[in-house]
């Protein structure tokens, strides 16, 4: 039969990719482009993943896993070099089970092909490892490995280690594109390793500094205060015949111990002794007012009772947040001309009051966004206190957080 009988006419322009609504089959070029796009997406995701991790062991493990994924390798490893840069100090793997690792025995130190990258830190791609004259074979119980791709990982100006990938899936060898992708990943890995090491160093330094600070503060403040309380109680032995004097001495000592407990808490949180903490709370509220003054035309007045600041030192962070939210609500919603922030002592309570002369509102009527009152109430209750709100249309608003002294 003539093959031209009944055949369709040539495709017109604009219809070469469709026949009666059916998509044309994907070509090899399409598949290659899609694979390239997926690889680029994988590299972008890899960069994000590495940038979000600050634990060095976790970073190293993720580098190996991502490299194997990007190059589509069955096995992957990162050989971390010792400080001398001449042998492998640590060896992180993927694709090899714990049972297989135990059967293999000791970790490699940097001989054979692995050592080739240590001596000459340049990308290395092999179709068959065994064909390279530098290969020394594998130990007993080692999984068979044929194709190979190795890339150095640099941290600043030195080689931190090498990425080793073997057994390309679905092909006899790794491609140039695989190599380029792993080189890109190795660059990202170098930055991630440096970030993780700096983070660890900073944490270690912070811990040491905190230990020194707390030790000094405890010695100069808390220990001396407790010593003074002990001396006062010891001297109280001479007052045994006067119950009233003994009671006064005990009450005084209990009060001083309360001061020591407050100082101890402040030392731990880095606020310093009570006097310093008081100044910190006062300064923080004034700094907060300055912050809002710069962003609005509202005249803001701050008044802090030193005694209130002293007994409220433990709540400093939460009180500052209450003030911040209350001022923000007033400036955004009340449109006031003046606003005052006061911290005072009222019996057994400390009162933080933020009052404005704005347009006010009805606290009993729900408003869009809730004016942040729910958050303020929750924070006040978390301190063991309560929130009071006084307001009416055209009369301004007063928000008071009352917490135990």
Outline:
This protein has helices at 28-51, 56-71, 98-104, 112-119, 176-235, 243-268, 274-295, 306-311, 316-334, 373-382; strands spanning 18-19, 22-23, 73-81, 88-94, 124-126, 148-155, 158-168, 299-304, 338-346, 349-356, 386-391, 397-404. It contains ten helices and twelve strands.
Written description of the protein model:
The protein is of the alpha+beta class. It has three domains: 29-201, GAF domain (Beta-Lactamase, 2-Layer Sandwich), CATH 3.30.450; 212-268; 274-404, 2-Layer Sandwich (Heat Shock Protein 90), CATH 3.30.565. It has ten helices and twelve strands. A five-stranded antiparallel sheet has the order 4-3-7-6-5, sandwiched between helices. Strands 8-9-10-12-11 form a five-stranded mixed sheet. Strands 1-2 form a two-stranded antiparallel sheet.
Structural class: alpha+beta
Low-confidence stretches: 1-24, 271-278
Tell me the name of the CATH homologous superfamily of the largest domain.
Answer: GAF domain
**Number of alpha- plus pi-helical segments:** 10
Structure summary, number of beta strands = 12
Query: What's the domain count?
Result: 3
Query: DSSP strand (E) fraction?
Result: 15-25%
Mean pLDDT: 78
Q: Would you state the CATH class of the largest domain? A: Alpha Beta
How far do the termini sit from each other? 103 Å
Q: What's the CATH topology name of the largest domain?
A: Beta-Lactamase
**Main sheet properties:** 5 strands, antiparallel
